[in-house]
Every structure is written in C-alpha cells, then in structure tokens.
Structure to design on (372 residues):
C-alpha cells in the first residue's frame, strides 16, 4: 500500500508543487551551502602530522631497543654507553680481543649543530679507550691511523690520551698500524704506541710544524683597499698576520720562535716514543719530509712493514695465544636519536674543511698540506 502524499501547506491548491526558495539575483536556482575551512580544520591537520611523526619515532625506538638486546657487544663504558663489536681480523668470536680504534682524516674536533654535542678525532679516541678499559676481554688496542695530521692541540691531546691509557692499564698493549698516510700529527699520535707497523704503501713522516696565511697586500694597493686597525702602542703585534699589509721582521721572528718551540716538542715526543732512536736520529728524520714505509723503517720511525696479519702475529708472540681484532661501533641511545649526537664527524674532506676553513684565522698545525 503506497504512502499518502503529505497535505499541502495551507492556502496552496492541491497538485501545485511548493515553491523553492530563491537567492536574490539567481531566479530559479536552488541555494548552495558554502564550505568554510576554519582554524579547527588546520589544527586537525597539524595534530595528524604530529601523530604520524610520533608513531614513526616509536617504531624507530622499538627497532633500536631490539638491536640493543641482540648480538654481541663490548661492555658499557663509564658513561653507560654500549658498543657493538665488528670483526676485523683473526678468528671470529675469538677471545682475547684487541680493540681497533680508527684515527682517519684530519685530526680535528668539531661541534654537532644540535646542542653542541662534541665529535671528532679526540672524542672518538676517548670513547674507544674507555670501551677498551671497561672490557675485561680486551687485552690490547690497535690504533689504525690514516691521517695527514691536524691541529697541534688536538694531536697532542690524542697523544696524551693514549699515554694515560697505557699508564692506567699497563696490561693492555697498544700497537699502531699505519694506512695510506700517517703524516705529521698522525705520526705524532702513532709514536705513543709500543709498536708501529706500516703498510708497504704507507707514506709517513712530515715531522714539523706549519702555520700558513694568505697575504693580499699588493692586491689591496692595486684596488685601493685599506684595512684600518685600531690598536694600542703597547700592543704592536695585535694585528699581526693582517692580510692587507706586509709582515714585519719582528713579527716573522716572533712566529718563528713559536714554531721552533712546537717543533722541539714534536721531536721530544718522537724521541720518547722511539727507544731505538736518540735525539740526533730523530732530528735527522725531522726535516718535514715524508717517507715511504721502507725509508721510515730504515730511519727507525717504524718497527716493521706489514698489515693486520703482522699485528696479530705480534700480539700472539707477546701473549702466547691468538687474538681477535674487533672495532667498536657505538649503539645509539634515546638521547642520540633525539638530539643528533651522531651528526657528521669531521673526517676525510669534512675534517680538512673544519681544520683549515672554519677556523677564525691561521693556526699552528702538525699537518702535511700535501695530504689534503
């Protein structure tokens, strides 16, 4: 049974359809509701993006936590940071272990752009030595050095870290293995080791100090450029190394005296670290020249020519049993993921840029410029 049609409004004859309301100026057109996107719409979009980002971060942290529970790892260091071990040479999974610490690229420290987290050669070496000290299965450290050198202070701080480690842990031996290049500051750190092995293709040496700067005095005159330096008569050296004027003889003597003092320190470090060399022998090699592995061995700068196999043999001879060489890989923590403690470190080309281009001016360097 079909439904009865509704009664028409009062005053409308039966069978006449009701009138559709019309908008002014649009006769016969039905009204269309206009959509408006208020602030609530955009707030909802923003909250949705936050929800997706939060979900992604939770998944990432979950995967990191699983990775932290699985696999072999070195003991946590004094700061509670744990390291995974990566096999380098020797029997896999063997014990005792030698921890390899890489010193690669220009020796320089830098700051992470997020919260200024420290990173660079010295920080990496410090963390590696802490890991070696904390793990009872680690019987030695291998410094794998492939570096043209770097800052005077950074090189010396790294050398002191190794020496302190040896004094505090005399039962854990330290060996250096040179890669393609171990020049200047790279060699400076290497002499802290008890034994030095160089690959047969290694270039090493460059014992010396350098400080370089650009001078545009002649160009400044040509183009009418003049630097105005306001200084006291009591500080005549304050604008020393200005690029727009010639260096004065007194300034040259002052800077040369500093270079000579830092050079003498370099020679003393090598003399102390190479018992088979007297100071005269070090001075004969310390001309700033670089040497092949064979030449360096003849001069007494390295002990033998070889690779990881030679390092394994040396440790086995000292300990009376085989060892395994591993390298530490730091496990990222929650704070690392949030605050970027694993930002780009200054190694390779980036390290040279940090060393030479990002400084506020000329620096004294244990560095071989030919190793860029």
């Amino acid at each position: 049974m079909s439904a009865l049609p509704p009664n028409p409004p009062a005053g409308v004859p039966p069978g006449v359809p009701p009138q559709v309301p019309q908008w002014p100026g649009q006769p016969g057109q039905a009204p269309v509701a206009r959509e408006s996107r208020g602030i609530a719409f955009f707030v909802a979009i923003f909250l949705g993006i936050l929800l997706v980002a939060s979900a992604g971060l939770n998944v990432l942290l979950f995967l990191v936590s699983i990775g932290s529970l699985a696999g072999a790892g070195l003991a946590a260091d004094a700061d509670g940071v744990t390291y995974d071990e990566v096999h380098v040479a020797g029997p896999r999974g063997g014990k005792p272990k030698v921890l390899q610490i890489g010193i690669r690229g220009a020796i320089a420290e830098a700051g992470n752009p997020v919260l200024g987290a420290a990173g660079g050669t010295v920080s990496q070496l410090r963390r590696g030595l802490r890991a070696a000290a904390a793990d009872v299965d680690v019987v030695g450290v291998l410094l794998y050095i492939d570096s043209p050198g770097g800052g005077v202070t950074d090189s010396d701080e790294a050398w002191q870290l190794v020496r302190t480690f040896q004094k505090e842990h005399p039962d854990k031996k330290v060996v250096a293995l040179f890669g393609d290049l171990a020049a200047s500051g790279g060699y400076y750190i290497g002499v802290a080791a008890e034994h030095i092995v160089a690959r047969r293709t290694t270039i090493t040496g460059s014992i010396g100090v350098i400080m370089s700067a650009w001078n545009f005095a002649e160009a400044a005159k040509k183009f009418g450029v003049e630097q105005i330096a306001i200084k006291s008569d009591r500080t005549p050296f304050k604008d020393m190394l200005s690029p727009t004027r010639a260096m004065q003889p007194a300034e040259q003597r002052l800077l040369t005296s500093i270079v000579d003092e830092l050079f003498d320190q370099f020679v003393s470090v090598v003399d102390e670290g190479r018992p088979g060399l007297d100071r005269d022998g070090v001075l004969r090699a310390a001309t700033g020249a670089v040497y092949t592995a064979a030449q360096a061995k003849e001069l007494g700068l390295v002990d033998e020519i070889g690779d990881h196999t030679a390092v394994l043999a040396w440790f086995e001879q000292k300990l009376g049993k085989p060892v395994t060489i591993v390298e530490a890989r730091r496990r990222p923590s929650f704070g690392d993921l949030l605050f970027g403690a694993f930002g780009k470190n200054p190694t390779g080309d980036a390290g040279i840029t940090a060393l030479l281009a990002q400084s506020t001016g000329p620096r004294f360097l244990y560095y071989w410029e030919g190793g860029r």
User: Anything to note?
Assistant: Residues 198 and 305 are 5 Å apart (CA to CA).
